[in-house]
């Protein structure tokens, strides 16, 4: 697929604490790669991928991998703006990273669009023996916060494609709903304009009819006055004779 040929452009941001595996999730999805020696992201990294949806439409996904360290928060905030979706990532072997998802979510909602699609991602399920966060606990948090939820492994690729494509499909639903609403509003405005036009035409027609009636009344009045004067002349003429 050509990168300049697409139907939709969606911006996705990846947020969460440092070392939860955001960069490797991005690498696995966009390059099908994994690097055990991945260094902590500094600032923001960027990748893109073209996806064909079931209806044959093409989506160009721009994915921003934001730094998890506190000192980069002010940089990351800029990249929330204009985002269509977000993957909020925590490490299932690190309870603190899960607890901090509430802070990340609060920050995200302060800076992002109200229609933003958010997916809670529990990464590193390949380390299940070290699990500190249960799937049930995370699922309940996601439900309470109205988020979608999935567990993944960047190491073996488990559910990685599913995570990104789920976000993209949900974004498409939001976009289609917005397009439909805009189309309905345009149609309503069109009908309203037509109604106003017909109303204006009715007012003009009523005004013209009123003026015609006034003219006719004036003519009748003049005719009546002339008839009266003629009768008066005849009467005076007879009287004088």
From TrEMBL:
Its main location: membrane. This is Gtpase ypt3. PROSITE patterns: RAB, RAS, RHO. Belongs to the small GTPase superfamily. Rab family. GO terms for molecular function: GTP binding; GTPase activity. It holds the Pfam family Ras. InterPro entries: P-loop_NTPase (IPR027417), Rab_GTPases_membrane_traffic (IPR050209), Small_GTP-bd (IPR005225), Small_GTPase (IPR001806). It comes from Stylonychia lemnae (Ciliate). GO terms for cellular component: endomembrane system. The gene is Contig9597.g10265. Keywords: Coiled coil, GTP-binding, Lipoprotein, Membrane, Nucleotide-binding, Prenylation. It is found in: Endomembrane system. It is a lipid-anchor. Residues 174-201 form a coiled coil. PANTHER family: DRAB11-RELATED.
